[in-house]
Specification:
This protein is mainly alpha-helical. The chain contains 2 helices and no strands. It is elongated, with a radius of gyration of 15 Å.
Length: 56
């Protein structure tokens, strides 16, 4: 994982506190963070599935 769940949450909270003048940058960073989170979660699911298949 790039970040653990707590780090993802802290990142989201930090970006949410972005000033209105930097709102566009904050939204762009939030999009990047969501992409990273989705890739991390997908990787975990694939790894878990592969582990289950190896046991059977």
């Amino acid at each position: 994982m790039h970040y653990n769940w707590d780090q993802h949450q802290r990142l989201a909270q930090t970006i949410a506190c972005t000033s209105k003048g930097d709102f566009g940058v904050g939204l762009a960073l939030m999009g990047v963070a969501l992409l990273m989170l989705s890739k991390d979660l997908e990787r975990d699911l694939v790894d878990q599935s592969a582990d289950r298949d190896a046991i059977v």
